[in-house]
Amino acid sequence: MSNSRSGNMLRQLVRKELREVLRDGRLWVAAGAIAGLLCVALIFGLRQQTSVAREHAVAQASAEQQFLTQDEKNPHEAAHYGTYVFKPVGLLSFIDPGVEPLVGSSIRLVAHARNAPEGARAAESSSLSRLGPLSVAAVLQLLLPLLLLVLGFSTWTAERERGTLRLLLSLGTKPGTLFVGKLLGLFVSVACLLLPALLGGGLVLSALSEGPTALDRLAVLGGLYALGLASFLFLALGISAVAKSSRSALVTALALWVGMALVLPRVAQSVAELTAPVLDREAFDREVASTMAAGLPGQGGREARVTAITEALLEREGFAGAETLMDPSLLAGLELQAEAQYENEVLDQLHAKRAQQLERREQTLRWFSLAAPPLALQSSSAALAGTDHAHHRHFADAAEQHRRALIEMLNRAFAESGGADGWSYRAGSETWAKAPAFVYQPPTLSWSLASQRVQLLSLGLWFVGSLAFAAWASARVRAV
After folding, report:
1. Do 181 and 10 form a contact (C-beta atoms < 8 A)?
2. Exposed e or buried b for every residue in 305-330, given b needs 16+ CB within 10 A?
3. DSSP type of residue 387
4. By three-state DSSP, how is residue 118 classified?
5. Computed over its alpha carbons, how large is the radius of gyration of the chain?
6. C-alpha pair distances (Å), 2 with each of 8, 9, 15
7. 227: left (phi > 0), else alpha (psi -120 to 50), else beta?
8. Which among 42, 147, 277, 455 could bridge 380 via Cys, Cβ 3.0 to 4.6 Å?
C-alpha cells in the first residue's frame, strides 16, 4: 500500500513538473529557439558534409586521372610533378566539424618534401566565422547547458517562494520523492526537446552509412552528451536547493555556465600555449630546411649520411666497388633512393619531435577538462566524429606513407628501366599505371577513445558528483 501510494505521488509530481514547464512561456521560447537551432544546424551540417564529400571525391578522381595520363617523362621528374590526395569526409562531421574548417584537407605528394595540408576553408572565411561554425555540437555544448540551468534553477526556490513546498512536505512527501519527481519531470521535458534532432540524426546516418561503424560512434557520442548534459541538470537542481532565492540561484547558475562554457576553455587554451609551446608552420618548415641541409646531429652532415646510405644500398645490390660497371640509370636510381632515405630520416625525427610538442599541449587541455564538462565534451565529441587533431594527423601520416611508396616506385622504375639512357630515359603510361593506389582507412572507434581517457573520466566524475550534490542538497531542503 505504501509503495502504491509512493508511486502515485511520484507520478503526480512528474505531471506537476511537466505542467509548470509547459506553462512557462519564457522557457517555451528558449526551448523552441534551441530546438530550431538544432534542426538548422543538422540540415546545414548535412548539406556542408555532402558538398565537401562530393568535392573531395571529384578532386581525388581528377588527381589520379591527371597522374595516369601525364606526358612521357623521366620517372623522377614525375616524382617532382607529384599528385594530390584528399581526406575522406567522415559521416559524423555534420554533427561536429571539429578542426576540419581550420586545417587543410588535401596534401600534395612530391619528392624531397613532406607538404602541409592545403585547402583550409577557414582561410576564406570572414572574421565572424572564426567564432566557430553553426553545428549540432556547438548547440549541444554551449546553448543546451544554458537552457538546462535556466530550466532547473528555480525548481526548489519557486516552490519555497510560492509556499507549495511547505504544503507538499506537510502532506508527508519525502524530500527524496520530491527530488526524483522533479528530476524525472525535467528529464522528460529535455527528452521531448531533443527527440526530433536525435531521430533526424539517426535517420540520416542510417541512410548514409554502409555499416554499423558510424552508428556505433553515434551511440557512444549520444551517451557522452547525455552524461555531460545530465550533469548540468543535476547542478541546477542542487543550486536551487541550497539557494535562498530564485534570483540568487539564477545568478549562480549563469555564473557557472559563463565560467565553464566561455571562460575556462579560453584559459585552458592560453595556459596550454604558454606551458607547451609548439613551433608554427613557417618556423617548423625553416627547421626542416636547415636540418636537411646540415644533417642530423651525430651523422657527420648531409653528404656523409647520403654517401653511407648509398654504399649500403650498393653492397645490398652486389655492386660495391663496381660502380663504373653499372648502368647510369641504376646508379642514379640507387643514389636517389639513398637521398630519399636520408630525407625520410630527417622528416621522421623532426615530425616526431613536433608530435611530442603537440601531445604535451593536448595533455594540458585534457587535464583542464576535469574542471568542466564542456571541455570534455568538446574534445570527446570531435574525437568520435573523427574531426579532431589526432584524426587529422592520422590522415597526414597515412598520406606521407603513401608518398614514400610512390616515390620509391618511381625511383625504382628509373633505376630498373632507364638503362644506358640515364636521365634521358622517358617513361609512359605503363609506368604510371604501376603507382600504388591511395586507400585511406580511418581509425577505429577504440583508437578514437584511447586518447579520451581523461575526458571520459571527467564526464563520469561530473555525472556522479553532480548527482550526489543534487541529492544531498535536496535531502536538506527546507520549506523556509
Report:
1. yes
2. bbeebbeebbeeeebeeeeeebbebb
3. -
4. strand
5. 30
6. 10, 10, 20
7. alpha
8. 455
Query: Distance between CA 130 and CA 425 in Å, rounded?
Result: 50
Taking the C-alpha atoms of residue 409 and residue 432, their distance in angstroms, rounded to an integer, is 10
Q: How many residues does the chain have?
A: 480
442, three cell numbers: 580511418
Which amino acid is located at 19 in the chain? R
| Model pTM score | 0.87
| Rounded average pLDDT per 10-residue block, the chain, 480 residues | 60 74 69 79 84 90 94 93 91 87 89 85 42 79 89 85 79 78 81 70 63 77 91 93 91 95 92 90 91 88 90 82 73 88 94 91 91 92 92 94 95 87 89 92 91 94 95 81
The rounded distance, in Å, linking the Cα atoms of 31 and 18 is 14
**Three-state DSSP class for residue 362:** helix
Is residue 376 a contact partner of residue 369, using CB atoms and an 8 Å limit? yes
CA separation for the pair 109, 456 (Å, rounded): 37
- CB of 16 within 8 A of CB of 174? no
Buried b (16+ CB within 10 A) or exposed e, 52-63: bbeebeebbeeb
Looking at the DSSP assignment, which residues form a beta bridge with residue 84?
A: 108
What is the spatial distance between Cα 120 and Cα 103, in angstroms, rounded to a whole number?
A: 5
Return phi, psi of residue 316, to 5°: -65, -35
> What is the per-residue pLDDT across 156-203, written as a single tens digit (0 to 9) for each?
888 888 888 787 777 777 777 888 888 888 888 777 777 766 676 667
Separation CA 370–CA 373 (nearest Å): 7
At 209, the amino acid letter reads S
CA 161 to each of CA 21, 176, 478: distance values in angstroms, whole numbers, following the listed order: 17, 20, 11
Q: Which three cell numbers stand for residue 478?
A: 527546507
**Which set of grid coordinates corresponds to residue 277?**
609551446
Phi-psi region of 386 (alpha: psi -120 to 50; beta: other; left: phi over 0): left
Taking the C-alpha atoms of residue 469 and residue 464, their distance in angstroms, rounded to an integer, is 9
